[in-house]
Amino acid sequence: MALKLNQPSFQCPKISPFGRNQPTLFRSPTFLKASTLGAPPLEVENKKKPFTPPREVHVQVTHSMPPEKIEIFKSLHTWAEQDLLVHLKPVEKCWQPNDFLPDPASEGFMEQVKELRERSKEIPDEYYVVLVGDMITEEALPTYQTMLNTLDGVRDETGASLSPWAIWTRAWTAEENRHGDLLNKYLYLSGRVDMRQIEKTIQYLIGSGMDPRTENSPYLGFIYTSFQERATFISHGNTARHAKEYGDLKLAQVCGIIAADEKRHETAYTKIVEKLLEIDPSDTVLALADMMRKKISMPAHLMYDGQDDNLFENFSSVAQRLGVYTAKDYADILEFLVGRWNIEKLTGLSSEGNKAQDYVCGLAPRIRRLEERAAGRAKKKGTAPFSWIFGKEVQL
Ligand SMILES: [Fe+2]
Ligand SMILES: [Fe+2]
Asked: Which residues hold Fe cation 2 (predicted)?
């Protein structure tokens, strides 16, 4: 049945947020205001267009991988069955959120909740900002499964496809689902955060999607996921370390067990890219250079809570200041992947491939130098209120 998409409240005289092939479909209200065409009156009234990302996303390139390359992924079915799916854990051997939470069916539930809340009091607000941001990132999982299913040659064609790529994506999603679930319940019980604001942010974020610029190409897509799994491994590892420093060993365990999953997923995704480098080195290293030139965007970069237009930047600043996820980590991940994939040692590349190899191999030190210079120039950032912690101000 058709949804009532054209009701007056959602309608805009010239630019329907739901219209097809509308050049301004994903553009932000800021863009509309700046437009020389002038914004239609309704757009001026509505600060945010409903159900669109909070800001402009890039020009959207689709299906950049030549269709004949789909054969490569078909030819890798046996490899994926034997070498990729082994990195999944059988459900019966997986931890579940309930293992790390007070069990509501147990006698001691109330007592355990009380203890959790006592421990939570020892942790500063700024830590919660980062933990909430990480949790929201995990909670936008529908977007990541969608993203994987945009990739040509590996998508789940039916929703229950028996291709090993589809099996991987569904089981990966099912494993990841425990992450947001566990963090969400833990934070809920802590009583330290504004759950309604957090829930709104999750709804906004899933509605906005993400813009990883992977162009339906599994080359780009699996480079992106390799990077991201390592980024989340680092970030959850750091929130675990901080929780331990604040004396909350249970929370440290929660973040640590999630980090361990991310590490396993990183192993799997980096293995796919390693395989692509073996079969098709030039185009794979070109894909790596392409992703790095475009910069790896964080999955929750379109985050919005209905209030703060700079929410993602503010959250990232706090994560940077606390050392949970930093610009240095970005360069370190790149350097790690370049080493993991032996990029420097690749031979027999096309001339374009050689250029991409040089670019990628020299990039991490360059990013570090630029970062150091930027850090030297950076002024103190001041503070920002976060709705997730009832509008309290946190140093950026
Ligand atoms: Fe995760
Ligand atoms: Fe992950």
From this structure: 176, 229, 262, 265
102 lies in a domain?
yes
Question: Rounded to two decimals, what is the model's pTM?
Answer: 0.88
Among the bound ligands, the one closest to the CA of 135: 1
Whichever domain contains 345, its CATH number is 1.10.620.20
Question: Has 301 been labeled as part of a binding site?
Answer: no
Give the ligand whose atoms come closest to the C-alpha of residue 172. Answer: 2
pLDDT value of residue 50: 76
296-326 pLDDT per residue, tens: 999 999 999 999 999 999 999 999 999 999 9
CA 250 to ligand 2 center in whole angstroms: 21
Taking ligand 2, which is a single-atom ion, which protein residues have CB atoms under 5 Å away?
229, 232, 262, 265
Distance 254 CA to ligand 1 centre (A): 12
Q: Per-residue confidence at 59, pLDDT binned at 50, 70, 90?
A: confident
Counted domains in the chain = 1
Determine the structural domain holding residue 327 and report its residue range.
94-395
Task: Please give the distance, rounded to the nearest whole angstrom, from the Cα atom of residue 7 to the centre of ligand 1.
Answer: 37
- H/E/C letters for each residue in the chain? CCCCCCCHHHCCCCCCCCCCCCCCCCCCHHHHHHCCCCCCHHHHHCCCCCCCCCCCCCCCCCCCCCHHHHHHHHHCHHHHHHHHHHHCCCHHHCCCHHHHCCCCCCCCHHHHHHHHHHHHCCCCHHHHHHHHHHHHHHHCHHHHHHHHCCCCCCCCCCCCCCCHHHHHHHHHHHHHHHHHHHHHHHHHHHCCCCHHHHHHHHHHHHHHCCCCCCCCCHHHHHHHHHHHHHHHHHHHHHHHHHHHHCCCHHHHHHHHHHHHHHHHHHHHHHHHHHHHHHHCHHHHHHHHHHHHHHCCCCCCCCCCCCCCCCHHHHHHHHHHHHCCCCHHHHHHHHHHHHHHCCHHHCCCCCHHHHHHHHHHHHHHHHHHHHHHHHHHHCCCCCEEEEHHHCCEEEEC
In a domain, 5, yes or no: no
